[in-house]
Specification:
globular
């Protein structure tokens, strides 16, 4: 973000890097797989953060949480977050990780 944001907005990238990555993301106690699954769950539950949700779907795949695990997670979340947010998350999952026969 520091290289792509306009000069008058770069302080947001610094805030994100220092606070989120420096203070929280680097803490011990959770594995990368656990941390990414929790972030995915929170973003799907919040709604309105589709770009970030898609990036964390990619991150989940990168750390070893596959598409089926993300779908199972959404199945558990359904009664808590409702159909609209669940379906939005499923659309994001399918966009980022299409089925093998859809590629």
């Amino acid at each position: 973000m520091l290289t792509t944001m306009p000069e008058n907005q770069k302080h947001f990238a610094t805030f994100l890097a220092d606070n989120y990555f420096g203070d929280y993301f680097t803490r011990n106690g959770l594995t990368s797989k656990e941390r990414e699954l929790l972030i995915f769950t929170m973003l799907a539950s919040m709604g309105g953060a589709d770009a970030q949700l898609k990036e964390h779907i990619r991150n989940n795949q990168r750390v070893g949480n596959d598409k089926q695990q993300l779908i199972e997670t959404m199945t558990v979340l359904l009664p808590f977050i409702g159909y609209l947010r669940t379906l939005t998350a499923l659309n994001c999952i399918n966009e980022v990780l299409p089925e093998e026969n859809e590629k």
